[in-house]
Amino acid sequence: MSNRPDPALPWETSQRRNGARRGAVEWWHDAVCYQVYLRSFADGNGDGVGDLAGLRRRLPYLSELGVDAVWVNLWYPSPMADGGYDITDYRDIDPLFGSLPEARTLIEEIHTLGLRILIDLVPNHTSSQHPWFGEALAGGPGCVERNRYIFRPGRGSDGDLPPNNWRSVFGGSAWSRAVEPDGMPEEWYLHLFTPEQPDLNWNNAEVHREFESVLRFWFDHGVDGFRIDVAHAMSKAPGLPDLGPADIELIGSAAHPDHPHWDREGIHEIFRGWRAVADSYAEPRMFVAEACARNSERLSRYVRPAELHTAFNFDYLTSPWRAAQMRTAIDKSLTTMAAVGAPTAWVLSNHDVVRHLTRYGRPQAEGPVHDLADHLLAGPFDLELGTRRARAAALLTLALPGCAYLYQGEELGLWEVEDLPDEALQDPIWQRSGHTNRGRDGCRVPMPWSGDTPPFGFSPDHAGSDPWLPQPQQWERLTAQVQQDDEQSMLELYRRALHIRRAHPALGKGALLWDPTTGPGVLAFTRPPGFQCIVNFRPDALRLPDHDGVLLSSVPLDSGRLPGDAAVWLTR
Ligand code: BGC
């Protein structure tokens, strides 16, 4: 059993290492957090959409897997123009997913298992069906309610041109024109995402008060933290100046040093206010930022001591499977985060990007790849290679200092479903790109739990509806049920790695020392006391250095050699 640890290791104990689980102060420094994309995790009521009832039933799975916290993606009432990132009520649960009392029960159950719970906060925009937006439209130009959003007169003699040239991240102009009840066009409103997601005006004190109250509402319900959606977007340049040519090329990124709507200085004041709210609670509360900054120094500004606690490391996520690029991403992140006293939050996949198993199963780019459209150009997909690299990547990620985020299904070895039928696609990117970009549905396909035909236990037996996205038949060999008894499976690799990580004194927080003697195509580092991780990115096998024991390897070792595209954890 190559990926089993040596028996009776001295540090192996049933005690939690330093308690990323409940009770520990600053638990986010080394927690492993599992992202539950709620609509695709488990369907409790048989309507084909994941919900709180389904999640509650699967909590023992998460606890046994060995994670410390659960980030539950969007559960708020929403017309679902963007998978729920268009919220109409920040203090309730969409009936599609359950109810507020059920959310309270879920929070208690998560805590009873010794886990923590994070939820999403979407502060850049509401739904266009939020009562505030209805009031803004009804009140007409100049009303106070309109000042909660960003309305402007159009350009051109009839005002029929958008106020500036900003582009929606999902394609097309970032402006839509409001229409009076009699059909007369009037002012334009800003939406950096879909027209159903109008941007809030963060120069308005009422908006600040409202979000601080929302934070308290959920903290009072026992939520341990928030993942801040597009944390780099709330502050806009005075006068809303046009984008320059370079910014138009790079819609989603903050490449420009003074970008008019990404990663602006004004954001930090907002976060200082939120940190004060979190710090006013006796039991620690935290924030993790989904922030795109132009470099890791800029990103580290979001997690300075009086601001947010952690920020996803997207440089790591978008690195190709190449030792040099991975090492650069790791080094830069560790250095810049350490400079502000924050842990690094490692992540390989989420609900917005192509699953890493699929990215790694293609010829690797020199630079970052995360958009499905670009990714498809990269050549044929090799499932075996992608799986092999994903296994190695799991061991690399969980051996790094800091906290880590797992995206549901990566522990089962799920791949991106790239052949969803056109009519099944629901991501607004598909429509807004004029059917040129298939969007993010491929990483959101419902989880396979058991059985040999769809819905693979995702919905209860005899459910009335099919899963909201079709699952590939080949996932019959990736169900949690099939994998749980197979010691060579991805699921067992993750379980074992998480178990070791929790018990081993070197893992989680602490130092990382690179081994200076390794050649190109290899990453090798030591974590004191007594732990070494070696990742072989090359195709050929590598002779292992002297060591005391093998804790875990991503593939069977070959007479003391680590095969290509594989990783090993050693004691020494
Ligand atoms: C979320 C996306 C969402 C967008 C707009 C992102 O960062 O993760 O899923 O479409 O924000 O809210």
TrEMBL record:
GO BP terms, alphabetized: oligosaccharide catabolic process
Keyword Hydrolase on entry: yes
Glycosyl hydrolase family 13 catalytic domain: residues covered: 35-444
Keyword terms: Glycoprotein, Glycosidase, Hydrolase
GO molecular function, one term: alpha-1,4-glucosidase activity
Enzyme category, top tier: hydrolase
Family: Belongs to the glycosyl hydrolase 13 family.
Name of the molecule in the record: Alpha-glucosidase
Species for this entry: Streptomyces canus
